[in-house]
Design brief:
Elements: H1 2-20, E1 25-31, H2 34-49, E2 53-59, H3 64-71, E3 77-81, H4 88-94, E4 100-104, E5 119-122, H5 137-148, H6 155-166, H7 174-185, E6 190-195, H8 205-211, H9 224-233, E7 239-240, E8 243-244, H10 252-268, E9 279-284, H11 296-308, H12 312-320, H13 325-351, E10 353-355, E11 358-362, H14 372-380, E12 389-395, E13 401-406, H15 409-413, H16 418-428, E14 432-435, E15 439-444, H17 449-472
Helix pairs in contact: 1-5, 2-5, 2-6, 2-11, 2-12, 5-6, 6-7, 6-11, 8-9, 11-12, 11-13, 12-13, 16-17
The structure holds manganese (II) ion.
Length: about 475
């Protein structure tokens, strides 16, 4: 708890600093994923409410070049959300005396932070908190915004929960718990436990079943035909007259039937599973007028779709509180994104191989670089690949190699650290890499692509063997 208090203190200091600097010119940079858009949206909302002078940029790539370009923007204060820790050297080099860089991030440090008053880093990792599991950028930004204003705008707290759920963080203790308690006390968030497949409360029943890809169920996720036939086999009617029935209209008995048939289907695909494995805690927002934004998971998947479909600016506006036209556009994007992800997952399923507990998908040719993270997240949440390290390789627009990876928590608890592995191998091969213990990424120049695939896989296999040997001994 002491560590959490230190992190909260550093957020309070950052809030004071921003209030002191509010008359200056700001430049914001955030990441294009759901946590980046949630945290960025919170900062955008604060900037507008405080009448600040600012510009905003969103990036997908996280290359050194991106940071250098951004730091050439004319401003006095540079504010980074969900990124920056991996490029502290570029920030250090790009921030002249008299300007300020404030970084709200939860990625692992690769080097000690520069000791300069100009650079303020707020990161759970600085306080011995695993930022992969606790204190994502949206949670940090939500608390910062809350500390900064005294007008009781509880909306940012909601967005903090959206980012936390989208980044699949734990919520039982730590700074995430602190945020949830605050949000519940403010009445802006309520907790609910349900079967994962009932998350999309307002979707037609068969769509909700096949659109839920975490957990990813082979031959059901992304497969409307299977969803319809499973539901029909239980005699569950999909229609009420001319319209589709939605999840919220299901009776308790129907829900239980659906759980049973999904568990049977999953078992038939070779995964050991109990219905309780599909239970999850979701968070709902009673003040939200738009039903598709009233559940944290669903809000997060809308933001995620904006980034992946290269319309991150829509996600940023949605996160900041825009509705109407913006929401209509985003709803269209989500449909397109679901179809794309389903197709890429099908390809991944045809071509993957497993080496000593490491699942490898060489997705060059069929995985869009923007979807590599989505595909690896979905596979890591599939009961079929339970316990495996997931490595997804794809090509970048300029012909390089992109890596996205996931590792199960029991392994990271025993010292497995993907962020460190990717950073090490990528740097050696002329690229860049890093992230969290359980989720990390890298980019590597094309001439070393084959070597990188081989070496990253090999290092993961060796690490797994080392951990297993330690356990045996
Ligand atoms: Mn994040």
């Amino acid at each position: 708890m002491k560590n959490v208090q230190r992190l909260i203190d550093s957020l309070q200091d950052a809030a004071k600093l921003l209030l002191d600097l509010r008359e200056e010119r700001f430049a914001f940079l955030t990441h294009y994923d759901a946590d980046g858009l949630s945290s960025g949206g919170i900062m955008l909302r604060s900037a507008v409410r405080m009448n600040m002078d600012f510009c905003f940029r969103i990036t997908a790539d996280l290359t050194r070049q991106d940071f250098q370009d951004f730091l050439r923007t004319s401003a006095d204060v540079y504010l980074f959300t969900d990124l920056g820790t991996g490029h502290l050297d570029a920030v250090d080099a790009g921030i002249p005396d008299g300007k300020t860089a404030l970084i709200l991030d939860h990625h692992q440090l690769q080097h000690p932070p520069p000791e300069r008053d100009e650079i303020v880093l707020v990161n759970p990792e600085l306080h011995d908190i695993d930022g992969g599991r606790d204190g994502c950028a949206a949670v940090l930004a939500a608390l910062l915004a809350f500390f900064m204003t005294d007008d009781n705008d509880s909306y940012p707290l909601r967005l903090g929960v959206v980012g936390m759920v989208a980044d699949m963080q734990k919520a039982d203790d730590g700074v995430n718990r602190f945020l949830l308690d605050l949000a519940e006390k403010e009445g802006t968030v309520k907790r609910r436990t349900d079967f994962a497949f009932f998350r999309l409360a307002n979707a037609p029943i068969h769509k909700a079943l096949c659109w839920t890809d975490t957990p990813y169920i082979p031959d059901l996720s992304g497969r409307e035909d299977t969803a319809v036939s499973l539901l029909s086999s239980q005699g569950i009617s999909l229609r009420d007259g001319n319209r589709w029935r939605t999840v919220s209209e299901l009776t308790q008995e129907e829900k239980e039937q659906i759980v049973r048939v999904v568990v049977e289907h999953t078992a038939s695909k070779g995964a050991k599973i109990r219905s309780s494995d599909f239970m999850e805690t979701t968070y709902v927002f009673p003040d939200e007028a738009e039903s598709s934004l009233a559940v944290a998971h669903e809000f997060g998947s809308l933001l995620n779709a904006c980034g992946r479909m290269r319309r991150a600016e829509l996600g940023l506006l949605l996160a900041a509180g825009s509705r109407g036209e913006v929401l209509l556009e985003v709803s269209k994007l989500v449909e397109e994104k679901r179809a794309k992800v389903a197709a890429q997952l099908e390809e991944a399923r045809k071509s993957f191989y497993v080496r000593e507990g490491v699942m490898v998908v060489d997705g060059r040719r069929f995985i869009d670089e923007n979807f590599a993270g989505t595909v690896s997240t979905v596979l890591s949440k599939s009961p079929v690949h339970h316990g495996q390290v997931i490595l997804i390789f794809t090509d970048t627009a300029d012909g390089g190699l992109k890596v996205s990876s996931r590792a199960p928590v029991p392994l990271t608890d025993q010292g497995f650290n993907l962020g460190r592995i990717l950073s090490k191998v990528a740097t050696k091969l002329g690229g860049e890499g890093g992230g969290h213990k359980m989720a990390a990424g890298a980019t590597i120049p094309s001439e070393n692509a084959e070597t990188a695939i081989e070496q990253i896989t090999q290092v993961c296999v060796e690490e797994l063997a080392r951990i297993e040997a330690e356990n045996a001994g």
